[in-house]
Amino acid sequence: VHQMEGRSRQNLTDLFALQPRFVWRLVDGSELETPFEALQAGDVVVVNAGEPIPVDGVIVSGMGSVDQHMLTGESQPLEKELGDRVFTSTLLLSGCLLIQVEKMGASTVSAQIVEVLNKTANYHSEVELKGMALANQSILPNLAISAIALPLVGLRGAVASLGASVGFNINMVSLLATMNYLSIASRHGILIKDGRVLDRLKAVDAVVFDKTGTLTLEQPHIAKIHVLAPNLTEDELLAYAATAEYRQPHPIALVIVAAAKQRGLPLMSVAEASYEVGYGIKVKIGERLVRVGSSRFMAQEGLGIPEGFEAIQLACQTQSFALVGVAIDGQVAGVIELHATLRPEAKGIIEGLKKRGLSLSIISGDQTEPTRKLAGELGIDTYFANTLPENKATIIRQLQGQGRVVCFVGDGINDAIALKQADVSISLKGATTIATDTAQVVLMDKSLSQLDTLFSLARQYDKTMTMGLWTTVIPGVVCIGGVFFAGFGIYAAEILFQLGFFSGLGVAMRPLLQHDPKLFGEAGKQ
């Protein structure tokens, strides 16, 4: 029994145990084989195709294809290059990477996941708690039955009736089933930090989504380019903006540069540049002075405002759309309008949850109109707009006051109060914030794609627990009946006890055998 429990625990944590004894460290241009324990932050390690990535770090040279399904649940390998972050417990499928060490050993993301999983496995499920209570409550009745049996059927029957106690079997079956489902969830990129979530999810009847960063991507997209200067095209305006923003790391700059590249627009050389954090950037491109930034930046610079700019600005503010102004030689030449990007998987996930009969709502800090529009696009009837972060928990509390069991899906850090208030809390922040994330469940691939899988696992878990309970209790009931009416003795009682135990054990282990063939070695072939 203890071997089976230990194996289940080992399976749970072995998901993230890829760690070599030696690594290749780059020293003065040469590769030296170095014990893993001797690595320090700032060292550069060399990882070749087919090798596990041993540290959390940043790529300083090279490019390659990385399989990180063990960490995030993503089925497809990701192409990694200079500047990208990589994590231990992932596998380099092709290429060669030079990685600067940031974290190793117990401080890595994988080590944090193992720590969380070990803690999670120690939570007692509701079924297990019921089993423990049943075991405690059945001691005196069991002794009483044995005492009654003694004068009626003799010593043999009295001793045999003691074998009807099923508390131990229920506890063991519950523990193994819980660990196995945590393992299955981890394989799908779902990190469950509180084992009681598997119990609570079956009672959830309302799911509340935060809008920004949850139903929509963190990066917006360019919806429209407004040209306000004569003799200037959309492509020319976008090229000026992309050239100015080329080396800026913030999301809007990345979107503008990506849009220019997508259109095949050449970027120009910049002679000089100055950047004001939070406002905008000013660059010299050839003989022209180009400013790119917010409407406040345009006003601050004292630029000429063409007709139509204020109307566009007002419309964007009403719709909560982002606006980036582009000025050339002291005159606002155009405006780039950016809209939030709906997650590609959002509609399918929402449809799946609606089929489960769940009540769905959206909470957003944005204006009413964009929130209403998104809710309509997803087929969600209830939405709350203009909501401050501290008021999100109030809305969840109101739903709970109506008798709802609420699951909140949002930002694992910024929505901490709402996540704590919800009966079940889910975060999309991914692997890098496990230590600070207050959510009970973290979707490791930073998408909603596994949300429906989580609800399916909870339903299967409930069925497994119920079946395990019956398969362990029924032999005990048969044993008591057999003692009084069929002359059962010690051997028959022991056989029934073992039958109940191994039947329950089979129920607990069956999810690993039938749930997903990838659990037995095919995962690495994706």
Automatic annotation (TrEMBL):
This protein's UniProt keywords: ATP-binding, Cell membrane, Membrane, Metal-binding, Nucleotide-binding, Translocase, Transmembrane, Transmembrane helix
Pfam assignment, any one: E1-E2_ATPase
Membrane-crossing residue ranges in chain numbering: 139-159, 165-184, 469-489
Protein family per UniProt: Belongs to the cation transport ATPase (P-type) (TC 3.A.3) family. Type IB subfamily.
Localization (cell): Cell membrane; Endomembrane system
NCBIfam families tied to this protein: ATPase-IB_hvy (TIGR01525), ATPase_P-type (TIGR01494)
Location, primary (coarse class): membrane
GO molecular function: ATP binding; ATP hydrolysis activity; copper ion binding; P-type divalent copper transporter activity
Chain ranges of the P-type ATPase A domain: 18-117
Record membrane topology: Multi-pass membrane protein
Organism annotation: Candidatus Methylumidiphilus alinenensis
GO CC aspect terms: endomembrane system; plasma membrane
Designated name of the protein: Heavy metal translocating P-type ATPase
GO biological process: copper ion homeostasis
Domain of life of the organism encoding this protein: Bacteria
